Structures are given as structure tokens and as C-alpha cells.
Amino acid sequence: MKIRKFDTKVQHLKYKVLREVARHAWAGDLLEKVTDIPEIIVPGNTATMRCCVYKERAILSKRVKLAMGGDTENKNVIEVITIACDECPMGGYEVTNACRGCLAHRCEDVCKFGALTFDEQQKAELAGNGVDVTLLEQYRKALDALKELSKQIEAERPTVIRYRDAEQNLF
Length: 171
Hints:
Elements: H1 9-27, H2 30-33, H3 37-41, H4 53-67, H5 106-110, E1 116-118, E2 124-126, H6 133-170
Helix pairs in contact: 1-4
């Protein structure tokens, strides 16, 4: 089993920014090199995470600013990098042909089948390889059984509550 240091690519990116800021601060040349840090982290002209290398570097320059203390006018505990925010959906993770290419790739983390690949814009695609249809059917049956069990529990809940209340009244 492969142990990962970072749960998401975003965490790894934050680490790279903090490492470079700390490295230059320690060397005493942070103010001179602050504009070079995004190019150090994303060298070349090929985008690796976003639509273009320029957007990647713009986001990285905002991250560098945050690593150096952020916006002193902003009193919030968490600062949102507006250019990087894609307003993630809150209802779960589902891979479709409408993948927005988010950086966190939670879909990759929750997929137990290894069924996802990512294109050059980091958009998820169903690969169709490595998917064990038998295992998938077992998961579906287990989920159906859990749903039925949940229904039974909900149906029996009033009886259990009445029993508990009666038992407390006895003692």
C-alpha cells in the first residue's frame, strides 16, 4: 500500500509554496525573489493543473502573498483565492462528462475501482479499465441491504423509544 504525504494536490501545492517562501526568507532574498516563486513551482509553458500556465501562476502568486501573511485588511480566518475558486458542489462526488477539473480530485480519492484517468487539463474521465463489475454489483447489493435495514430501524424506532421510556418509569 502506497502511503501519501498529501491527501490532495492542493495540499501538495500549498507545501511547495510554503517551502519556497521559507527557503527564500531563510536566505534573506524573499522580497527580491517573490515574483519568481510561481515560475519556480510551475516551470515552462505547459499548464499542469488549470486551463493555462498564466492562471496557474496568478493563483500561485496569491498563495505566495498568503504565505507571507495575507491581506492585513481581511479579518477572516480563511481567505478565499477568488481566481482559484470554482464553487465546488456540496452534494457529493460524481464523475460525468461535466467534470470541472477541480484541483482536489476527491472523485479520485473516493473511487475504489481505479476507474478514473485525468487529461492534460486535469479533467476526470472514466477510463473503463480496472473496473470490477462483479465488485460493483456487490457494493450495490450491500447498499440496497443497508437501505432496507435503515428502513427497518426507522420503523422500529417508536417501539424502542416507548420501551425505553416505560423502563425508565419503572425505576
